[in-house]
Structure formats: structure tokens, C-alpha cells
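Q: My labmate handed me this sequence with no annotations at all. I'd like to see what the chain might look like in three dimensions before we decide whether it's worth expressing. Could you predict it?
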Amino acid sequence: MNISWETFKVHTAHPFGISRGVKTGDDLVWFRLEHEGIEGWGEAAPQGYYGESAATVEAALQKLAPSLEQVEDPFRLEPIERDLRSALGHNGSVHSAVSSALHDWVGKRVGLPLWKMWGLDPANAPLSSFTIGIDEPDVMAKKTKEASEYPILKIKLGSPDDEARLRAVREAATDKTLRVDANAAWTPSEAVEGIAMCAHYGVEFVEQPLPHCDWDELAFVRARASLPIVVDESSIVATDIPKLDGLVDGINIKLAKCGGPREAIRMVHTARACGLSVMLGCMLETTLGIAAAAHVAPLVDYVDLDGAALLKEDPFTGPHLEAGRIVLGDAPGLGVDRA
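A: Here is what I predict for the chain of 339 residues:
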């Protein structure tokens, strides 16, 4: 295979705040592989929280290049991915970019979209939420009204005046489903109080109330929680899930975190075996990054694939959201092209 990549920057339509800070964009890496005249594409969305950056992605790809260029049969997905896991360790966004590109190539080679290769039905994909980042209450209310086409909203909390922020959103969206993500910002006592407050405002569930991860503290909160708890930062790959059995109600899978569509599907089935619900999320990503996750969406219970919808400009076209509904289409592989 011939491989290449390039780093590019995306910008958000509005400053995007979570408990760990505010960002106005991200550096992403577009990865491409070519074999037999067909190109497979993938995207790395590195996050500092997981020890990655665009520079570490490029360094990892430089390390991988010699072995990837020796691959003669991209259909050998499982052994290739096994070698990737061994070589990359926890560089999840790099693994996701390469894995997505391999799957994209296979889909294009056989002329089928990934969802059809996997025997899935796009109609079974849940509606996606749209995220309202932390800001002043009046600004969050304004953003809520701008997101009027989305029936489900995910509200970022985990800062002073959480209740004022959530109240402002609820008053601006009286009939919408609300979900809350604290991004690991609360202490156990704050989490118990925060979850009770969320229940008062009709929130469906709360995501990652505690830092990763003191299991005793998580058990303490869940025993007192009046809403389901879904974890994100506490669940990276499939082997993390069994230890969460009995401590939470669900997990959030992100391809840039777990290493791509293949590991994401493993996580779905592992979570099901543990009786946990499954959410599918994303980072700030373009349509290229979102597409790989979108093809997995028919397997899960909840979806939060709004990363590309939060951007000022998107350099790619393909699977997208229409009023929260995931539109996949019949184009082969990921179904992505340049805008």
C-alpha cells in the first residue's frame, strides 16, 4: 500500500466549552492509503486528554509507514489491526484513522457501504443529540434556540452555576429531550446533588459525572443516583467494560478514543453481554471522522455524532445529520468525498 497524510485545522461555529476549558477549533489529520488504484480515507482527531496531538499522530504514522507500505492484502483486516494494536498502544486516534481507511478501502473495493457489509439497517440508528457547550446561561439559551431542528440536546455542565445553565436551556427547550455531560468534573457529593438537580429538569441521563476512575466512588454515586449514569472517559476499549458492570448503566464509545470501527463493534457486543446500554459519541471531527462512527450507529441505543455539525466549515461531504437523523446513503466504503 501507498500511504500519505496531512494535518489541517477546523474551527467551531461558536466557542465550545466543557468542564476542562474552551476551544475554538482542533488540529486533525487526514490519512489516506492507496492500493490497486483505490484510496481509503480516515481521520485522526487527537485529544490532549488522552495524551495525543497532531504531532504525536504524525510521529506514530512515520513509525507505522514501513509496515503499512508492506501490506499486500488490505482485506486481512484482523491481523493488520492486531499488529496496529501492538505497535500503537493507546494512540487511539491514529489507530482509528488507519482502521477507518482500511474499512473504507474494503468497502470501495467490493462496492458496498460499510453498513451494508455489516448487515445493518440505517433506519435502526437512533436520533443524534446536538451539544450545547458551557457558556453564560443566556448564551446557552441562545444556542439552544439556534439548534431548534434537533429534538435531543446534550448539555455540557461541570462549572459554577450548573443549575442556572441547565435552567436556561430547559426554559428555551421545554419539549426537547435533554442529556447532561459533566466531563468528569464533579466530586462524589457534587455528583449526587448534580444528578438530582438534572432529574428535576427532566434530564434523560448523566454522562461521566466523576473523574476516571475510583470504582468505590462510582458505586457510591450510582447507589444514590436518581438518573442513569453513562461513562465516557472511564471506558476506552472493550476490556474496560466488564469492570464497569454493576457500577454504571451505559458506556459511550468514541472511535478516536477506542481505535476505530472494529474496536467500536467489539465494545458494543461486550457492553451488551454486561447488560449495559450503548452510546456512540465523537470529538470535534469533520464528516470524514464522523462517517466511520455513523455506520456503526444502527447497533447502539443513543447517538451523539454532532462533531461536524459544530464546525464553521466542513471540508468533506458524506453521512450527515438532518434534524438529528443520520443519513448514510449507498456510496461505497465510508461514503465520503471532498466538499
